Amino acid sequence: RYGIIGCGGIARGFHLRDMTAIAEVELIACADIHVEKAKAMAEEYKAKAYYEDYHQLLARDDIDAVIVCTWHETHAAIGADVLKAGKHVLVQKPMTISIEDANKLVDAAVEGRKRGLKTYCFPYNWSPPYEKALELIKNGDLGKICQGRCRVAHGGPGRQSWFYNPEIAKVGASFDMGVYSVSAITGLMGPAISAVGLVKSLEPGVRIDDNAIVQLEFASGAIGSAETSWTQQAAQEGTAIYGTKGTVYLGWAGHGILVHLNDQRDKGWHTPELPPGMPNAPHRHFVQCILEELPPQGTPEHGRLVVEILLAEHESEKTGKRVQLKTTFDWR
Q: Of the residues 4, 13, 144, 304, which has the maximum number of CB atoms within 10 A of its CB?
């Protein structure tokens, strides 16, 4: 039994769409500062209640888990409140836009784990191709990893959206879509120790960043880059990891995989046998973690590193200097 805080487009078009396809769940209540949105969602999805103040939702004893999909800067603080109320939480990306709030959510998650509570933070990297790529890296099949790159981009969320309003969103494409590329590459290559960024507003009339690139130095000594854009119209994009013994390519969101290994040259570029799994099933994973008491694969510790890198990207753009990173925890 779950509640949802934030009743906008991402709640309706993504979270509720996927959660309603899972037989084991029931929507109990909705909350939004625009109470008419909460009311409309509750009526459409036959929830028991709706609220303007999300604390009233958290006070209900018939809710086991909560999905947080509000504005960027509110995610972590609300997520921490959910955990303090004794409920599992799924936090929409980006986890937050400040290290202070990221630390609060991580601290709340650590305490929550002691009580069996699950804290699950988007982006969701995991899919059979992604897990296979990580296996190849861990097993040394690619040799020494020297370089990696990831690009996740699209044409933007629509100029009339709050995403383009710097007074509300605070940050643009870097945190909206760049969070995917940074999460994907660090999920495969491990902690980064420094970052150099370029963050730009390139489309006429846009007051918030719509293109961004961050170059990373990893604790392993490897280097890499993560790119994003709101001005891209069409492209073939994804993730590539380059090692001394081979290369692996992943499509967008972990869909599809191609591998070229020095000791399997006769195969050329090929798709390896994949581990069992549920492709692109983040909500199913969240529910499974709760029902079967499993650890979520999208951790707040990883989310904190992603936030730190994105903030360093902006800092580097302002100062023109490389930024040293503090988060060194390896979650892999």
A: 4
